[in-house]
Sequence to fold (892 residues):
Amino acid sequence: MSTLSSSPYKGTRDYYPVDKRVQNYIFGVWARTARRFGYEEYGAPLLEPLEVYTAKTGQEIVSEQTYRFTDRGDREVVIRPEMTPSISRMVAARRQELAYPARLFSIANFMRYERPQRGREREFWQLNADIFGATGPLADAEIIELGYEILKAFGAKKPMYTIKVNDRRVIDAMMHDYLLLDPIQSELMVKLFDRKNKISNEEFRDQAIDIFGPDKAADGLKKIAGLLVARQIDELPKEIADNPAVDELKHLFSILKKRHITNAAFDITLMRGFDYYTGTVFEFFDEDPENNRAMFGGGRYDGLVGLFGAEPISAVGIAPGLSTVELFLTSHNLLPELSSTTEVYVAVLGADQLEGAQELVTKLRAEGVNAELDISGRKLDKQIKTAVKKQIPYLMFVGEEELKKEKYNLKDTATSEEETLSFERLVTRVKDRRRKAGDNSDDLFE
Amino acid sequence: MSTLSSSPYKGTRDYYPVDKRVQNYIFGVWARTARRFGYEEYGAPLLEPLEVYTAKTGQEIVSEQTYRFTDRGDREVVIRPEMTPSISRMVAARRQELAYPARLFSIANFMRYERPQRGREREFWQLNADIFGATGPLADAEIIELGYEILKAFGAKKPMYTIKVNDRRVIDAMMHDYLLLDPIQSELMVKLFDRKNKISNEEFRDQAIDIFGPDKAADGLKKIAGLLVARQIDELPKEIADNPAVDELKHLFSILKKRHITNAAFDITLMRGFDYYTGTVFEFFDEDPENNRAMFGGGRYDGLVGLFGAEPISAVGIAPGLSTVELFLTSHNLLPELSSTTEVYVAVLGADQLEGAQELVTKLRAEGVNAELDISGRKLDKQIKTAVKKQIPYLMFVGEEELKKEKYNLKDTATSEEETLSFERLVTRVKDRRRKAGDNSDDLFE
Fold:
């Protein structure tokens, strides 16, 4: 038989322990912060019926980017490309049993058939945190605060990023009441604004002219230019400023200011791609010149739960992604050094000591120490090399002498310092290290 | 637009917080125990190329049970139906960089197109723990001990289950050297033994006669009957007993006995379905008469890594599944009461106190307390009902008086007891409860 390739499927990643540590560090901060805010974890299926997405997810994702197929029972299914429709479906299914406002979060993987690039993989991971059954700026502010606190927990400072905020109703007022576009033109213009940072000013202007049509292009472009210069929420033209969403946005900013979130700002050019948004939309944007990009965002989607036959239930959510957060942490030098979760590697000096070492390692585990036993019978230098290669903080040597005297050599693999310790002292030493390392060591599965 | 169904895709489950708590409890015990033994976590892609499975997974799974499809780039892919081929591929890809023996674990979801039934879903979750690069009974014993310690961590006692052990080489000797079957007959006989507990004795006999053929059936059935009566490793016929695997099995049982694992026993009828097993195979079997079934198993598969173009690397692993473990815990009444991860629900007495309550809840979170704030502005009785429905252990009331005096009413939602406490005392009270609840509260993402 011919040899099989050992590469992962295109656009997906193998997470070896050294990579998984980073993923778990990020997941741990996400889960811990969400729980601090009273969000409870849920899980949704990997596959959903296709209809769940055709309704509101956005044309491009469904028709070009989904992993869809027909199952062996002739059902059209999709590997979830996002979480919002799934959790909306779940809330609809138990709308009577849930207590509101319901605060829910999940950490899950998704798939989209996109061109893989830096910060974007075909299989990707997201935190999704949502409030169901709460309307108004207080709920919107809480969701933004959650994103802010997550970045704070990673050690981020406010100047490192900005939070751009807009409202779908403001966008509608801008397109319809101010730029005087019909629904089809509006949709095209929204998509054009969405691409604004990825194309040149000339391209933007040319495509805008196409959308306005020859008669209205000059006036339209002038209005857009005006909006792009001003950008302040207090300087909006009357056609937009009269929309009640503007007052709600002002209220939202006043709450954020009280919460000391001073790096949030109104941005009328922020669109957000999903069709289901109905109110506030926002985006966390990395200000590092080397990594100047949207990190993640969210918004209000009051109409989605109602699609599943339930009374409409209002909803607002946020969805940080693993890859973009990892890029942010890397670009701002915020990722901590992460060693193995194994704390002690027990090296055995001779075959006769294996049984004693086995009992010792069992005692260590009973004390809550993560301990790996070398059962290979190899020479000591090979055992030591293994522990170092695995980035295990401590090495413990077990020979005849050690078992007789019940004193053990403990070596710090980073500093090469050695100490001879009783079993109890040794356990204390290892646990002290764990505490110093932050004690966040034990985390996800609450 | 017509209403969308709110049901999950057939054979999958929605995990609401109350279900997710159980899942996280089980995942937490798995992850913690695997780490205690020095296993490090990894993650593998959701999709693999089809070839990864056609080689060795077993005909039935690949041709009848996989979720396979062609992606938008014309690649034949499969939603992983199991982890063993993926981790073997990953080890092969980094065979030079990894330190051996490599101890690796993951907790992940899989899909198989099977008829959903009790303890079996189309999307299912497993722990996979494997040792790469260690041969012999010591490694096999460690993997079995890991399964044993996991069940012990759940509170299981030895009489609740047995560990059946066999060896693929013993099976081969039985089929080829003792029952004198050719390779095709052997394969059929293995599959027949695999189904033995699901069919009647008559069906078993009739199908065995078909496999032996008329001439050899009488002799063959007599031999099988003899094996089924004896079953002891010391009473095997010479044709099987001469195989070196039998001595290794005896060595394995002697190690397990030293580790106090006295509920493990040789079982020559244990086959295990996967084609890749080459040595020891084992199965943890629930002895509850109401739930008498295989829970999970594992074994040695020394040939799989080599398929990916690497030097052969020996491997042995175990894969407990979520649904069967949950059934085991339920049938033996071992599942603990699990409350919300949110510890304090902050009820606000009047709109004027919302801002003060907001600051208070921020202080609680900074102290590491998981606190949810009611921002609904509803009447107090509705806020209380919400906290109780969410199974949040404590309710805290914030009104004008409380903010002025800096003393707060804390109500235990289970006992309805109330206390008036300073902020510091309140934090201590909440943390004491968490400690008493086991302090395993923070767990997965190390």
